[in-house]
Amino acid sequence: MKKAIQLLVIALFFICCKTNSSAPKIVENNEPTFAYKQQIENLEKGIYFRANGNEPDWSLKISEKTIEFASSKQGYEALNGNHVEPIRGIDANVKMYQVSTEAGTMTIQIMQQECVNKMSGDKSSYSVQIEILKKNQSIHLLGCGNYITDPRLHDIWVLEKLNGENVTVENFTKELPNLEINSTTNTFMGFSGCNKMGGSIFFEKGLLRFTNVVTTEMACRENNKEAIFLKALQSTTNYKVENLRLTLANPSGSELVFRKVD
Known about the structure:
16% of the residues lie in helices and 47% in strands. By secondary structure, the chain is α+β, with helices and mostly antiparallel strands. Strand 10 (156-162) and strand 11 (165-166) form a beta hairpin. The N and C termini lie far apart (68 Å).
C-alpha cells in the first residue's frame, strides 16, 4: 500500500511538470500605442493641428515652430518649413498658410466643416486643401484634420478669482465652482456654484470657448454668484496656463482664475 502511494505521488509529479512545461507563456506587450505616441509628440513639439488624406497617402503637422508635410508620392515625399501665421477669412472660419522653402512652395487651406476620410470613414471637424509647387510642377491634395486641444487644460480646476476678486464659499453654495476638462473628448463637467454643469469646448490655436453649457435647475439664494460665473465662462475666448493656474478671459474684460487641484 505504501509503495502504491509513492508511485501515485511520483506520477502526479510528472503530470504537473508536463502541464507546466506545455502551458503557453503570456508575453506582455509594453509597446506604447500609436495614439499615445502622437500625444507625446504633440506635447513635446507643440503640435496644434494634424491632417491626413489618401490617394496618395499624406500627412500634415502644424506646430508652434514648424509646418511639416509628408506623402507617399514620388517627388513630394517631404516638405518642411518654418511656422507662419495664417491669413484668415472674413466671412467664414477659413485659414490659409503659405510656406516657402528651397524645395518648393506649399499653400494650405483649412476650413471648418465636417470632413469624412474616404478610406477609413473617420469624421473630422475641418477640411484641408494643399497645393504644392515644385519646379513648375504642382500637386493638389484633399483631406481632413483636427486641432489638437492643449493637453495642459486636461485637469481639475477650482475657481480662485472672479473678475479680479477673490472668491469664498460664502459667494456660492457649499463649495467653490470647479471644472474638470477632458482635452481628449473636448468636454467638461463640474459645479457652477449652485448647480452641476457640463458641456463642450471648442479649441483652435489661441481660441477657447465653452459651448453647449447645461446645468441642473436647483434654486439658488439671492447672493449666489453662479449667474456671474456662468456668464464669464460662456464668454471666454482666450486662456493662459501658468504657475498651476488657468486664466479664462475675453476682450470685454471678464476673467476667471482657477487653481489646479489634481
